[in-house]
Amino acid sequence: MAKNLLPIDALIARYLREGIIDAGISYRQLAAVTGMSINRIGIILRQEPPPATVGETGQLARAIGLTASELLARAEREHSERPVGDAQPDPVSLDDRREQRCERASDETLRAVASQDDGLPDAQDGDDQVNYDHGDPGPDDPFHTA
Asked: What spans are recorded as compositionally biased (Basic and acidic residues) (predicted)?
């Protein structure tokens, strides 16, 4: 039986998703940088169980210029200020320090990913976003993990 997401898990996933969108990093790029499967990244960012492990949180946070500790501290602060059962993060823009680090990490990530030839055609106009409504990509997918 899968572990359900706790409110703090949902906050962490939302902050990760927010940072990844702000950084303009695709799931394919995240997979290349973190070593995680695209499917697992999607599960985490869609807030589906099981929640991200500490290691997965750290890998994704590092891709957007944060540490797992910083991400968890932000989620804990907000979680402690909310009534029980309310896991919606405040719609506050990210602080300047995080934005600067996110830009640096995004540039480094994009350079690292751009220098790798994955043998796949390059996406046009953001087509490298993956639709996760069609199940597991299967064993022929280069990011598939058994």
From this structure: 74-84, 94-110, 131-146
Best CA proximity match to 102, nearest among 44, 62, 43: 62
Which amino acid belongs to residue 41? Answer: I
For residue 77 the two structure tokens come to 């602060």
Alpha-carbon torsion (134, 140, 141, 146), positive or negative: positive
Euclidean distance between CA atoms 59 and 67, whole angstroms = 8
- In whole angstroms, give the CA distance from residue 58 to residue 76: 16
Separation in Å, CA 121 to CA 10, 127, 128, 129: 34, 11, 10, 13
Per residue in 10-42, pLDDT (tens digit) is 999 999 999 999 999 999 999 999 999 999 999
- Helix (H, G, I), strand (E, B), or coil: what is residue 33? helix
What is the spatial distance between Cα 82 and Cα 88, in angstroms, rounded to a whole number? 9
